[in-house]
User: Fold this.
Amino acid sequence: MSDEILYEVTQNEYKYGFTTDIETEIIPPGINEDVIRLISKKKNEPEWLLDFRLKAYRHWTTMEMPDWAYLKIPPIDYQAISYFAAPRKNAPKSLDEVDPELLKTFEKLGIPLEEQKILSGMAVDAVMDSVSVKTTFRENLAELGIIFCSFSEAVQEHPDLVQKYMATVVPYADNYFAALNSAVFSDGSFVYIPKGVRCPMELSTYFRINAANTGQFERTLIIAEEGSYVSYLEGCTAPMRDENQLHAAIVEIVVMKDAEVKYSTVQNWYPGDKDGSGGVYNFVTKRGICKGENSRLSWTQVETGSAITWKYPSCILLGDNSSAEFYSVAVTNNHQQADTGTKMIHIGKNTSSHILSKGISAGVSNNSYRGLVKINPKAENARNFSQCDSMLLGDKCGAHTFPYMEVNNDTAIVEHEATTSKISEDQIFYCNQRGIDTETAVGLIVNGYAKEVLNKLPMEFAVEAQKLLQITLEGSVG
Amino acid sequence: MYFSTRLLVCIMLEIKNLHASVNGKEILKGVDLTVKKGEIHAIMGPNGSGKSTLASVITGNPTFEVTKGNVIYEGIDLLELDPEERAGAGIFLSFQYPIEIPGVSMVNFMRAAINAQRKYRDEEPISATEFLRLMREKKELVEMDTQLTNRSVNEGFSGGEKKRNEIFQMAMLEPKLAILDETDSGLDIDALRVVANGVNKLKSNENASIVITHYQRLLDYIVPDYVHVLHDGKIIKTGDKSLALELEEKGYDWLKK
Assistant:
């Protein structure tokens, strides 16, 4: 009997292959070396990658989950998670089964119906319009020698590049979640910009939105060769419903001499309902290295989603005269918790970094900025300027700032400024008196407060992000 | 019958026995005031007499609690409306102390306000060209520096610039009932002339103004139909323009018996 079932299952797998029908890809929950071997095999990975995964896994088993963040994290049962293309157990069959609040938000953001279905986790059979767009898009890029594909494709088609750069910025032993990701990562994006090429368009993961179930343990690698430029957009403003509660992604960026990378994120994973149940736990390790002289990296993030956010996009300033920027807006409402910030590690001479963090807390949420500025002994004339602002809506939420500074060179100039503000009743009444209702007024004021960061986003993203801030804070005042 | 219909049409605001308090302290103690279309009413009175409170209560500032009385505006019970609904119905307040809103440009703020009010009146949002034309026209009217409208709302404005900005907003929103709360205070004589000029140009038979002031000098430029003296939360005397001159000469004490 059991043999029969086994036979059927294996037959099924052969019949459909792993790229065509996710529903049939069942690996029982739990993590062990066999599961990792199976993942690697299913993805047809080379031996070195399997070894890497196994090393990461073995290291992970020796580690403890970090507890230093200002977060209350419920216990996570890692053996209860399916680590490969988890089947959609409770996938809604139609939009009628989806949280009406979520649908309202889709309406407000103007998301097309087909995308609404995908975003709410429904299995969609129809071929999306964007597929053809995607193909022409990639052909254009290929002419310039730019590679933009999924991480799995890169492993198959450009293994030398992947092997050369993967885990050079975030080693598997870096932290608990990085180790977990390194052991079980599902898929992600791969970007390679050749020497001297300016990528003529914004590279957006939006074009691969239909790559379902890659979100849980995503892995992204971006390489910008000498003198190249790319602007990369990740995420989307629509609230992404996902039954996978735990997300642990890695993003690595390598920036060579005279190259520049702009990385923008709008993160809006499902934050849970108003009472704080459900919602995604987002533990992300993002790091870039400014490897060559005069290289530049900027991180811009708008964080509105997830029940728990643990995220510190960082930069290692290795090349002389390299510079890095971190611009962040993090919003928490209801029961959301965010502990986010950056790390700027100055190693090269004349390196500079700029940090601008805008936190907004509402409801009973907690929002923390945590940032490290480290100046190594050889980093002559390093400069850093940090500004961390917090805005409180209501009197039950919390805003916290944890700046860390390690300055080991006398020539460094490191500055830190912090402010806390509230939206005053006078401001609201002033807007009301001009005809603007309270929710719109809060949106205006919050967008004004976050403007410096939003202005760093690519145009169309900025417009969506503005709407998003307003929607996220609806009902939080008055 | 004919008479009463006519009356209903031309009365814009009717305040009866209005009592209001803040933090349990009664400030307005029975105000009666009737404003008809086309009229300008000046409200004068010593410090602390309740002039600004009256403006706040008419516009629905939640800091103040109405404990008694009623306010009818164009036939509707004004006290039932939210502040933004009152604005949408055409009531405008030029603030004594205009509020700063960092990061929100005047352009965005004005567009949000105009569209909110249009929505209240079931009108389509204003087009970009129409909006820019209106901005240009009204800036000229109040002789406002173009740079100011590119800056954040009132942020870093001088006292005079803030007041001028209030009148600019009034011009943009074209209210039916404008309440000017000490718009003249802190203005030099040139700015005063500009502000008054703005107010006078907007005057018509269809709208009305309530001008709250300490000094009669504003009334040289904006000529009121009525002058009321507010003292200790009540209107204790009403007269024409000459009352303002009398007050200038004799102060308020002779009225406070």
About this structure: DSSP finds 13 helices and 19 strands in chain A. The radius of gyration of chain A is 22 Å. The first strand of chain A starts at residue 147 and ends at 150.
